[in-house]
Amino acid sequence: MLVQDPSKGNDVDSIFNQARQMGAVEGPIDNLLPSSSSRSFTGTGRLLSGETVPSAPQQPETVIHNIVFWSNGFTVNDGPLRRLDDPENAAFLESIRKSECPKELEPADKRSSVHVNLIRRDEKCPEPEKHHVPFQGVGRTLGNSSTPAMAAPETASASVDSAPTPSAGLVVDETRPSTSIQLRLADGTRIIGRFNHHHTIRDIRAFVDASRPGVSRTYQLQMMGFPPKVLTELDQTIEQAGLINSVVMQKF
Question: Which stretches does UniProt call biased (Polar residues) (predicted)?
Answer without folding.
Answer: 156-165
